[in-house]
Predict the structure of Diaminopimelate decarboxylase.
Amino acid sequence: MSGHASPGSFTGTSPVWLKTPDDVNALVPELWSATAEKTDGVLTVGGVAVPDLVANVNTPAYVLDEADFRERARAFRDAFTGYDVYYAGKAFLCTEVARWVQQEGLSLDVCSDGELSVALRAEVDPARIGYHGNNKTPMELRRAIALGVGRIIIDSFDEVERIASIAAETGMTARVMVRVTAGVEAHTHEYIATAHEDQKFGFSISSGDAFEAVRRLLAAPNVDLRGLHSHIGSQIFDSSGFEVAARRVLALQARIRDELSTELPELDLGGGFGIAYTTQDDPSTPKALAEELTAIVEHECRGFGLAVPHLSIEPGRAIVGPSMCTVYTVGTVKEVALDGGVSRTYVSVDGGMSDNIRTALYDADYSATLAGRTSSAGPVLGRVVGKHCEAGDIVVKHEFLPGDIAPGDLIAVPGTGAYGRSMASNYNHALRPPVVAVRDGESRVLVRRETEADLFATDLG
Ligand code: LLP
């Protein structure tokens, strides 16, 4: 896998990775979807000029590059030959995207009843759905089993009991996996690391809980235990975490073989593959990832004398993240003097933490560019902020923007496809923006902008 510059080092007011651009109008292609380009300063995605698009749908808007999404999905499918690739719908899901996932030959990972309903609405084959969650209700489990969901990922002893009793009582087969925590400290933000011990997901391998969960599930009637599942976290660039996790998970697989006389046929390595939000990130290609992960698993299996199980992965961000950008209109511009005679230009846009919570929640970095015109002004150090009543309402912490940026300008933020719309909120009664798919010069609203009527639909007055 590739790298991420060490965060946190600053020169004065901006991080060291942020270089003053030679041309403040230029796109950095690595951060954008494949069809994004600029002509005379006008951003075009999927052959659609962004100013034309927003003339129809207004701002803020998420612009989804369909060809790019499909291409990334195919790249994972083709690179991970022999694997099942589950697109992690939590990153972004709507009915049409669920169809694309199925059309491109991927399976789908859902983690709630709502996501499952979207998948069914798109007529995704239930056998190709994986169902996650640390607190699925008995009703949700019943529904999943009745539908014939391909695999339910079991996350607690309470769930072992629930699933066993539903399967026994209904006589229907529950196909399940056991989510384990390998005790790996993934190098990512604490809130999105999931394989260390002190958090809510999975069964610990080291405490013996994971083995015990497997033992109980193997003994339960009508429960078909397919294998172990290990997801170590998100926005990860370094394969050492996967390597340590694979070793521990396969050690457990060997113990299950030795003590329970069962070699579980499948293994899921989870998702979490990092993408480039800014120039400091240098992600791997699916092909390189596939080679690395396969080599790791094959090596560890050899060591334990195990057959290589049927493998699967669950990328979300690495498929949809770079496929979308968010377009905003600049409302106010304020230059704020900082210590040392320098200043920062605060550019307020018509969205903010309600359409992208990641900056506030994970201290995430993004980039931005002027989307509707070219500028001959020199670059100034800018910060793109939202319109919410909160100082932490920041979209892009650090970016060089043209010095003449002004109210009415359009700006676009790339890499917002994953966990942008899916974690959007109605904070301050904001209306969540639309998702507009673009392809071959055509645009299509997949998710419409919310209206006041949507807000009032639940406020009974
Ligand atoms: N599989 C499992 C079991 C997961 O929990 C997740 C993400 C994925 C796959 C997909 O991970 P991805 O490939 O998208 O990184 N909201 C956070 C990320 C939380 C991810 C939760 N689980 C963010 O915006 O960074």
In short: The longest strand covers residues 324-337.
